[in-house]
Amino acid sequence: MWPILARYGSFFLYSYTVVLGVGVAAALAVAYCQLRPQPSRWTSFLDGALVGLGAGILAGRLLYVAANWPYFQTNPTQIIQIGQGGLGYHGAAAAGLLAFTLWQRWRGLPPAPQLDALALPFALLTAFGWLACYLDGCAYGRETELGLLAGNLPDSYGVWLVRYQTQLLGLGGALLTVGAGWVGQKRGGRPGTLFWFVLACLSGQRLLLTFWRGDPVPTLNHLRLDTLADGVLLVICLGVLGWIAGKER
């Protein structure tokens, strides 16, 4: 856990902010390398990515604040302090992808090829998100016994216990998805397949990790809401992949 990288007087440089910033830059660099031969697609992609990023940050923060309202109700000034960490992944992903898709439609470009170009950058940004959580202490694992998948790790309050290494497992899974997506991109396929394949992999990984996570999340009938959200998202991804495969026959 290394939440603060540096302090300059009253200004704190948070690792969460820096790592996510580097992740955004790396994701855009990967997208540029993919779309460099097509300047018009790259311009539309970049504009759409920035619009999606803004929508994602806003929706993700609203979801996180809503999920942790008792805390923010007594600390309202921290609602706008996004740099300290705290984004609801599902709200950020849904709003960001919707804004990106609508932007491509508005520019008159078919969304499916643009979403395929987003697949690897999105997986890479997800990996940086897990790394940011590892340094900040968010998305921590629940208490367990010392073993291969566990380590002496803190929660977001700095309490050290033997926990599942959910952040590092998520990081590893996201990097494997980047590699699998790169191979799939080289093989080609029907437009849209790569994006929904990558999103299915990331959703499946998050779904499995929810059973090991120890951070507080609202529940429904004793089931974490992020477990339900990732399960629904995985079903949607598999359904879309099946529909695309059916169109190829």
Structural commentary:
The protein has one domain. 39% of the residues are buried. The mean pLDDT is 87. It has 8 helices and 6 strands; from the N terminus they run ββαααααββααββα. The protein is mainly alpha-helical and 249 residues long. Helix 6 packs antiparallel against helix 7 (193-210) and helix 7 (193-210) packs antiparallel against helix 8. The longest helix has 29 residues, at 39-67. Helices cover 66% and strands 9% of the residues. Strands 1-2 form a two-stranded antiparallel ribbon. The chain has a two-stranded antiparallel ribbon with strand order 3-4.
Structural class: mainly alpha
What helical percentage do the residues reach?
Answer: 55-70%
What would you report as the Rg, rounded to the nearest angstrom? 19 Å
The shape, in one word, is: globular
SSE blueprint and pairings:
Layout: E1 4-8, E2 11-14, H1 15-35, H2 39-67, H3 69-74, H4 89-106, H5 111-136, E3 150-154, E4 160-164, H6 166-187, H7 193-210, E5 219-220, E6 223-224, H8 225-248
Antiparallel strand pairs: 1-2, 3-4, 5-6
